Amino acid sequence: MSAAAPVAVRRRGGRRRGGAALPVGIVxxxxxxxxxxxxxxxxVFAFRGGAADFVxxxxxxxxxxxxxxxxxxxxxxxAINAILGTYTAYVxxxxxxxxxxxxxxxxxxxxxxxTVVVGxxxxxxxxxxxxxxxxxxxxxLQPMFAPAGVLLAHLFVTFPYMLGAVxxxxxxxxxxxxxxxxxxxxxxWQTFRWVxxxxxxxxxxxxxxxxxxxxxxxFGATVLVSGNLRxxxxxxxxxxxxxxxxxxxxxxxxxxxVLATLSFFIFFFLLRYTARRGR
Amino acid sequence: xxxxxxxRRGLLPVLFLAALLAYAAWPWLPFSRDTATPPxxxxxxxxxxxxxxxxxxxxxFQKQWAAEGHGRVEFVSSFGGSGTVTNQVILGVPAQVVxxxxxxxxxxxxxxGTIARDSWKRLPQKGVVNLTPFVILVRPGNPLQIRDFRDxxxxxxxxxxxxxxxxxxxxxxxxxxxxxxxxxxxxxPGAGEAMLTGIWKNVxxxxxxxxxxxxQFENGFGDALITYEQEAVYDRGRGRxxxxxxxxxxxxxxxxxxxxxxxxxxxxxxxxxxxxxxxxWSEEAQRIFVKYGFRSATEALNAANPxxxxxxxxxxxxxxxxxxxxxxxxxxxxxxxxxMKQAPR
Lengths: 279, 345
Fold this sequence. Notes:
With 279 residues, chain A is mostly helical.
């Protein structure tokens, strides 16, 4: 369920009308076993016991908690990274400084690092016997195996998505508009708020949804830092995995179907938005 | 760009997200919140314990605790491979009570300084909560005529086995296989090793936990699965077993060890945690375990479950000098150093 970069769909221009049957057929033929059939399988197996069964497994306290907890973490992750990511993108785009390039690469690394490694390093850093975590224990602070740990992992893993969505837009905005704003006496914040932010709306929107969707499906880092505690830190993907492991395929697929549906809407909005902007 | 239209189009996703947020946050909103959060016991268990604890033991203890006039108690639990659980506890998950598949995982916790050495031996039955022998699951009708461990060594048999690195059950299975060989031939540690080599040549998949191995087998992978009898008995009782059970002539009775992680138990929760630990050996709890397919150390209680099979020569880990010796001699020295190096990759 990991989020892929959205494809900007062009509404008009360069679109062909006739002769679509063959290429569309080829695409469908390729996508059917690769993507469409596995997606359909989620729903087929989720509903194999009938709709009543589907509702029953979904309404179990564990499933409800897992879904709610995942959503809350996704909202928090999206909100925090919207601010952090935008600010980082702004600094990287507007200032020239030593180490700018290495920093630009570093902040994108979370995409390439296996999430299990992210989880392990967070544990070794903030865990109760970790490098920094051991100094927190006497203070009664314990970020790992708690919602805070899950949030930390998700912030790390999704950070590049916000940046990737916002920075290209920022790079494109011409400096002259900002300069014009400054010349009529706007301060830095006013310029950002009234000149840059409106132009950024599209990037922000897609960045937030991508981050949200990615956080919703995050597994590798979460399974390590959460302790996988039912009704406490178990996110929806962890619930799905636990249920699969226990042989409860129906329960696993019911929650998976909900996640897939949510992701569908998220990307539906995303594509609609980018389609409009492409016009 | 038409700004009115923009606004209207942007409204739908915003409404969608707002509805999601409202749904997600609902239980935590001040007016919907159950104000008094009851005391909680954090329980970690190895993979096959999930159902018996969630459906059987936890509710029964909650009733018992309330009946004793203490009010409510909640359980927070997590289940996984015994080795995985052990690693999590070492890394500091807030587990208070942990039921491990095998004592050597308890030894690892003690080695890491997480719990006091041998602290579990002061519990009833030296910390062993329940038992279950290791059996072989085969496809319905037993098409390959697998009746005992030696049949698993035949060429062409494909075995699904849990991974001894993370699964307690896999360690039990290795000692079961070794013991089945060595005890069949008097004075035969060599026969034990030969049995292991024969079987492990045929292992086609190693899953992280006994439960995960079972899921692989259920999904049609392999011809045979070496696993806890409990899984077969429990599933057959619910009419869900789609496999035959082969009872080996000689096999091990696994003993599941309970540890209490004292550093995670706050003083005010101490009586509750202690009561829960004692409760696990009560007749009521033991009967629940038997109902879910585990064997009780109190032999008389086992008659309550007609699903248990007969084993001619059951043996225990003590017959191999306990887990410390068995781990060193059988798992590390023979299986890891010799058998795995011969097994074709």
